[in-house]
Each structure stands twice: as C-alpha cells, then as structure tokens.
Design brief:
Radius of gyration: 20 Å
Strand content: 15-25%
Structural class: alpha/beta
Distance between the termini: 33 Å
Oligomer: single chain
C-alpha cells in the first residue's frame, strides 16, 4: 500500500462570476522510500496538487471532490488543527524559493528552534542539540555558530540546506520539494539533490519532487507523473518512462532537453492554456502534431498501456 495516495482530486478557483476548474481527477501514488516526480510546465497544477496535500490552498480555491490518503486516513477530512500537527512533523514542505522562505528578522537558529518547539515539543538544550544535529546532517559547517546567523548571511544554497534541515529535524516521513533547485546554480543544484537522495536513503523518507526539469528527474526520480493543464497525462516508473515515452506532450518535453549530441533543440508550439480558456477535448490538442477530430471532442481517459505505465492519449486506442 502506498504511503500517500491522491485519488481523483478536483480543485478550482472561484472568480467574481464563475468557478474555474484547475485540477481534473488528479491521481498519483507516493511509495515509501521512493521519489515521485510531478512534472510539467509552469501553471499546469503541480504546486496546487502538492499544496492540496498540506491543505495550504488559497482562500479562493476549493477542492470539489477526491481523496488524499496518508497512512490510511483521508487528509481532506482533517480539521485545520489536525493538519497543523501533520504539517512539519509528518509531511514537510521545502518551498520553491529559498531566498524568501526564511524570515529576515530572526536568526536561522531561532526559526529552526521554533519549528522544534511546535512540532517536537523540544526546548532548551535538547532543542539546541537537535538543531545542531540537523545542520550537521545537511552539511552546514560550524553548525552551532551558523545558527546565530540571519538569513542574509547565508548563500542561496545554504538557505536551501537550512530549510531542508527544518524538515529533517522533525523526522518527516514525506518531503514535498517544490522546485528545490530553481534559484540555484548548477553546481549547488547537484549538491542539494545529492543531499535529498542521501536523506531518503538514510531515513527512509519519501520525496514528492515538483519540477519542470526532466534532466533533473532522470537522475533522481523513481516514478514520474506528467501534468498538463490540470490533468495527469502520463505516469510510469522512471526507467519505463524514459525508455518508452508515450504521450505527445511527454515526448515534446524530452525533445526540448539539451543533450551532448549536436541536435537542434525543439520547442513546443503555442502556450499552455489559461484557466479561463475553454478547450474542448484533450487540453493539449492545439499544440499537438498528432491531433485528430476525436481529440477535440472529449478528453481521453488515463489508461494502462503496459504494466504500471498509464497514458491519456487516443493514439493508444487506435
């Protein structure tokens, strides 16, 4: 049984005059000790899917149906107070921008100690010892001294390590890493992903990796779910996905990755649809080279095309 199951999640935003659907029957599983990469262009619904797990969606957003099962319990049935106990202690978020995720008015140590007080009821010397151990675990040198620093005294990579330390200190089972390397240079990106993989191996944690970077995914994910305009359009184990990519959108994403071969990079024509745009049928059809009349009538179902490999494309039913 998966550690986390998102089942047929539907979510939308209430505007002044109408309800705009953003997620359509989104389903994926996160196995214990594994990394699931949720992949797609900006605005496709990756972050909103992840924030739904933590019940941190905007006030204008509303989940209309679905289930989010964690350890056999539906998180959507939990009260805000119950979710506060789960957030941080059981499921932790590594936010998208390390530069703005720490409060500039408090030392990094004060913020880490506050997390320990809230989620582990630790104070005094025990909290300080745990904080130093957390900094050591993410390879921040001279941990005790660095706890006294303010965020502006940390580099981008160090800030990201500090945020990961906060998640580690509470022994969370699940780490939701939302574009954890976006604001970092390539060398630091590699270090952060190496660190996350070491944490996963040592502590048996599970990672939900939110990213648009398939090159990053190919080296770090066990399983992959590709999103487009609020739909999961393909999901598979990583090895199967890269060897037998099926959906036209997934193939287009792969072709846009720079490689060592001297081949011309391809772009995906057009732009992803906005929430207010109405596209009949498959949402990818205006940008798809294989679009048929059927594609413009009804969105294809996500079907199993081989063992644990699912794809939502009418090319599979021809």
């Amino acid at each position: 049984m998966p550690l986390l199951e998102v089942k047929n999640l539907n979510l939308g935003f209430q505007s002044e005059d109408k309800f705009l659907q953003a997620l359509y029957d989104v389903s994926f599983n996160l196995e214990k000790g594994k990394t699931l990469a949720l992949v797609g262009e900006s605005g496709c619904g990756k972050t909103m899917s992840a924030m739904s797990i933590l019940n941190l969606i905007p006030k204008t957003a509303r989940i209309t149906s679905g289930e989010i099962i964690y350890n056999g319990e539906n998180l959507l049935d939990k009260t805000q107070e119950q979710m506060r106990e789960i957030r941080g202690s059981k499921i932790s978020l590594i936010p998208q921008d390390p530069m703005t995720s720490l409060n500039p008015l408090y030392t990094v140590g004060e913020q880490l100690l506050e997390v320990l007080k809230i989620h582990k009821n630790l104070d005094g010397d025990k909290a300080l010892k745990t904080a130093i151990e957390a900094f050591d675990a993410v390879q921040i040198p001279d941990a005790k001294a660095r706890l006294k620093n303010y965020p502006h005294e940390f580099s981008g990579g160090m800030k990201q390590r500090a945020i990961i330390a906060m998640a580690l200190a509470c022994d969370s089972e699940i780490l939701i890493a939302d574009e954890p390397t976006t604001a970092l240079d390539v060398t630091i990106q590699a270090q952060i992903m190496k660190l996350l993989n070491e944490i996963k191996k040592e502590k048996g944690s599970s990672i939900l990796l939110i990213t648009h970077d398939l090159a990053l995914v190919s080296e770090n994910a066990d399983d992959i779910a590709v999103m487009y305009s609020g739909h999961i359009v393909e999901s598979a184990q990583a090895k199967e996905f890269f060897e037998h990519t099926n959906h036209p959108y997934s193939k287009a994403l792969l072709k846009s990755i720079p490689s060592n071969q001297f081949t011309r990079l391809e772009t995906i024509k057009g732009q992803p649809p906005t929430l207010s745009q109405t596209i009949e049928g498959c949402k990818f059809n205006p940008r798809c080279d294989f679009c048929t009349q059927k594609c413009c009538q009804k969105h294809p179902d996500l079907l199993e095309i081989s063992d644990n490999h699912f794809s939502a494309c009418y090319l599979n039913t021809v």
